[in-house]
Amino acid sequence: MKLFPESASQQLEFDKIKDLLAAHCRSEFARNKAAELRIHTNKKFIEPQLLQTNEYKLLFQNHLYFPDDAVLNLSKELKLLSIESSVLSGEQFIQIKKLANAIQQIFRWFSPDRKVAYPSLSLIIEETYFEKTIAILIDEILDEYGIVKDNASEKLSNIRMSLYRKRSELKRVFARIVSRLRKEGYLTDIEESFMNGRKVLAVFAEQKRMVKGILHGESDSRRTSFIEPEETTHLNNEIVSLENDERKEVYVILQKLTTQMRAYHSLLSIYHDIIGEYDFIRAKAMLALDYNGTLPALHDKAIVKLKDAVHPLLFLYNKKLDKPTIPVNISLDDRNRILVISGPNAGGKTVTLKTAGLLQMMLQSGLLVSCSHDSEFGIFKQLMIHIGDTQSLEFELSTYSSHLINMKYFMENANGKTLFFIDELGSGSDPNLGGAFAEVIMEELAKKHSLGLVTTHYLNLKVMANKVSGIINGAMAFDEKNLKPLYQLIIGKPGSSYTFSIAERIGLPHHLINKAKQLVDENHFSLDKLLNSTEQDQQQIQVEKKKLEKLIKENEQLQKEMRQVIHKEKHTQQIELLKEQNQINEAKFIYLKDMDRKIKSLLTEWRKTDDKNKVIKMMQAVLFKQPEKQILKKKQEKIDNKFIETTEDVKLGYKVIMKANRQVGTVTHIRGKKAIVQVGSVPITVALNAVAVVKEKPVEQITKRNEEVPE
Q: Is 294 helix (H, G, I), strand (E, B) or coil?
């Protein structure tokens, strides 16, 4: 993207975003990418980067592990590997092995299912492959600490075996000498030491002539002399010689391994870049989480549709202070190309411009942006800004002269792929003349089909926005009652500067304010007053609208809950109905099954007996038998017609009704909690609480009831 002026990146604070991004980077590769973050103008570069960052953000949000723990800065090692005749050390090879192992983990992580779930992240390794030979070659030569193994070559194995023997022999001989000289009192407390790689005795300085050998030095106090015994000189010489042979053989082995590894230099460089690339994507995802960055829709055309957008740096600042950040909504397209924002000073006009400009730069550099996910961004090839005082002391230009030079550049270079931001258009000159030029500039930019935001206090620009096609008004809301900006952008109408309201609130004398009002053109003052009144009315409407929306949501919730209750009740009723139907069907089934059994039994009896009349009577009894409940009901009706139940205690001679079978009898005996009831000629023993005392109704009541019962 082409920026104008060159300081646009600093003015829109894009450099601060890059610094925050670099702070999340762990590798040198990622930090370099953050410092040199490019703003692309081609969708095929922007979209994959956005998708990769969003997928990595999802990993964080879903608490999924991604194997990018290795932080490797191997630029020097890889550069050395590319040079012919170079030799890498064991420690450097261990770092290369770590790189190979890290890549292996990433390849293993991308199972077929994960490649489908995270397609953009998997694209990074799509054009390469994992080469296991790299780690195998290193493991054959080096141990986990980077030391060449004994079996790396036959010669090295022999040298180290000889070294082991000579050192063991030296140890035995030296121990014998130390034991002898200790008895003679020639040795100091430390007894032995190493100097110049050779084992020496620590001898009292006054006794040094008593010990035969080579003097290697003295202590700082000159009280101790370090002497190599004559008996061990040849052993030390042999050991030194073998150690030199060992170093030479190790060098030869490492040289050979370096030559073998050089064949994989290009692949290792790709691995190194992949590790750095994933670290960079991780940093972008972490930064997005800091300011609630999202993935919006991306179009390859000139469009800006921001929903609930906030300035990321302002959001982070307010977050530390536990303060809310007021979002803005901006919509620019081919029909509405230029938005003219008016309103009082310190109302948030410049912040709105910077928010839109910074988010556009961030998106085109592959960063997620702090706005709603259903926002829409286009791709622009140019971004031009004019924010703040651009007075140039070097070229002796006034603020307005510099302003016009910038506007000249805007008009000459703007096109349909240009996004511009102008703060206080026309300021710095006579209001009438500056306003006239501002109209010309804005109309020319509209003809160029450029998209942009303009802030102003000029009344003529507010009026122009309603007349010229493609230019619309917007205003920053202001609470006149409390004299406080609301930082809310309202599209579709111009805003008042609240000049006189602010003057009254801060306590300027009324006679001065009235005098100033008289000096202002009456039409100008009336229009500003009308804008003031309209804005306050609209704010009240917005408050009422929010209340209404809240009530509507509550009503919808109540309706939803009521529907759920009704549905649940219907479901319960259906279950109860099915239960009853099942019980009826079950009773019918049992009844039919019993009837089937009885009829089969009667048929068997019919075949066996000669008394056919008896079987016919039995069959009639089975087929035309009244249900038990119906019989009990008729019994109850007869009893109710003749007797009345009372609550009297049961006594001898009382008539009682048995509750179970509804039979009436006379109490003949009472034995504890039981009674003997004479029913006809049959005595029945029942519990006292299983009967109730009854009395016969008068004859008139019985007759009357019989008359009421239909025949």
A: strand
Does an H or E element contain 678, and which? strand 674-679
Judge if the upstream peptide bond of residue 710 is cis by omega within 30 degrees of 0: no
Nearest CA to 87 out of 284, 253, 291 is that of 253
What one-character-per-residue DSSP string does 359-395 give?
HHHHHHTT--BSS-TT-EE---SEEEEE-S---BTTT
Core vs surface per residue 438-460: b (16+ CB within 10 A) or e: bbebbeebbebebbbbbbbbbbb
pTM of the model: 0.68
- Which pLDDT tens digit goes with each residue over 239-296? 889 999 999 999 999 999 999 999 999 999 999 999 999 999 999 999 999 999 999 9
Q: What pLDDT digit, counting tens, does each position of 552-580 carry?
A: 888 888 888 888 888 777 777 777 766 66
Pick from 204, 218, 205, 214: which is nearest to 235 by CA? 214
Residues 688 and 673 sit within 8 Å (Cβ to Cβ) = yes
CA 487 to chain centre: 28
DSSP string, 610-666: S-HHHHHHHHHHHHTPPPHHHHHHHHHHHHHHHEEE--PPP-TT-EEEETTT--EEE
Could you tell me if 280 and 25 are in contact, meaning their C-beta atoms sit under 8 angstroms apart?
yes
Which residue shows structure tokens 């790189």?
A: 99
Task: Report which of 572, 54, 649 is spatially closest to residue 298, judged by C-alpha positions.
Answer: 54
Tokens at 423, concatenated: 């703060």
- Burial track 505-526 (b if 16+ CB lie within 10 A, e otherwise): eeeeeeeeeeeeeeeeeeeebe
